[in-house]
Amino acid sequence: MNRSIARRLALMFALVALSVFTLVGTGLFVVLRTQLEHHLRESLDDRVQIARIIVYHAVTPEKWRMCREKLTDMTPHDGSTVYSVSSTDPYFHYGQPVEGTAVKNWPGGYARVKPAGGGQDMLTSTVTIPSYDARPPLQLQVAASYSPNIRTMRVFGSALAALSALGSLAVLLLSYSVTRLGLAPLTRLTRDASAVSPNNRSQRLNTASLPLELNDLANSFNGALERLDGAYGRLESFNADVAHELRTPVTILIGQTEVALTRNRSVDDLRHTLQSNLEEYERMRAIINDMLFLARADQGERATGLVEVSLAAEVAHTLEFLEIPLEEARVHATLRGDAQTRVNRSLFGRACTNLLMNAIQHCEPGAAISVTIARHDDQVRVAVANPGEPIEPGVLEHLFDRFYRAEVSRTNSRENHGLGLAIVKAIAEMHRGTVSAHSANGINTFSFSIAASQIDTALPSMRSATGNSAHVAAEATGYSSLVKGKSA
């Protein structure tokens, strides 16, 4: 069950207000009770002083009779104040002292007494009056009832509780309204976010009038939308490129098969048709394998099976493997530099093969290809340079994208489906490296780097990239087919 933020905030504000009201009310209640008791004690002191003066001068029977009358007149009918006098002489006696359980005693003869016969507690003060003439020593007790204090505290406590409840309710209602008003930008943000759809990917959240607390959230959401829009666009482009690349061999297969079926063919004609179809099947398989390899690389897989090797030896092995394509293109390659590091030999060889085949295909006969291995900080970079036409900066930044071709109409576009450099980039990233391309002074340089120190982790292995040398030479297949076609 989803809960409203406004209701939750309003409820929390109300609980906080109730807690504050309770603390303040408790403090006021304690202060008021203390003050009422203090005032009751002061009032009792005044009555004790008056009664003491009256009793002190009652030294004769006549004066004692008048004293008793005055004490009677001073005693309220509701019994809130009680006077009593006791002595060794029964004649000098007045009233009944308050007797019961002493709840609390204070210095100066004050005591809070719970009467034995029941009723409200009484605050008593007992003083001794010395003898005077014929009057013996007297014990004067004045008692005042706690009833007014108790009634006042009861009324005050009830009023305080009611006001606290009403105040908390008012805070609840007001805070709910204020919270809804304060969350209005969030509501508008939610409405704008709901309007984003695949058909309206360019829409972004308006952050101009948002409060500071929501501005970072909106900017983060807009950034996520930008990344999703870019990924969606690349996916659309990728799907279109895949369909285009697969449509060509499928169209060729259908066309050749239809031609073969138009009339009776000899065994040699059928063999030639099947051989041509087999080449197209190989091309489709290469496209599918490369797409699966890139898909696994996109999932964040790292290279495994790392071994300490000499990169110069690995590149030399790749150059030896590409000896025939180099001779047929009438170009030669040189190798400079070396470094020791841990790599997946199959993946490293595949990346070198792709870069060298790319250089071979864009070299004029008689040109020289230069392979350089150099270490820069914590990276080892392998660079393949070849002379060629200058490449525009806007093209350089896309050369490692999938299915990207700087020249769509070049003669060998049918044999190269535009995934070779993308695979180099994926292999570099699997070794925690990067790729780069430069074009200057008639020399085009394509390079990739790998981390100088690799850790062989237990991540899932790349089965399609750890096979035999046939996988390393996957990109060379197209070139070999092209050579065969020209020779034929």
Automatic annotation (TrEMBL):
Keyword check for DNA repair: no
EC numbers: 2.7.13.3
Record's keyword terms, sorted: ATP-binding, Cell inner membrane, Cell membrane, Kinase, Membrane, Nucleotide-binding, Phosphoprotein, Transferase, Transmembrane, Transmembrane helix, Two-component regulatory system
Catalytic activity: ATP + protein L-histidine = ADP + protein N-phospho-L-histidine
Protein name: Sensor protein
Transmembrane regions: 12-32, 155-178
Superkingdom of origin organism: Bacteria
One GO cellular component, as annotated: plasma membrane
A Pfam family the protein falls into: HATPase_c
Localization: Cell inner membrane
GO molecular function, one term: ATP binding
Domain Histidine kinase residues, every copy: 241-454
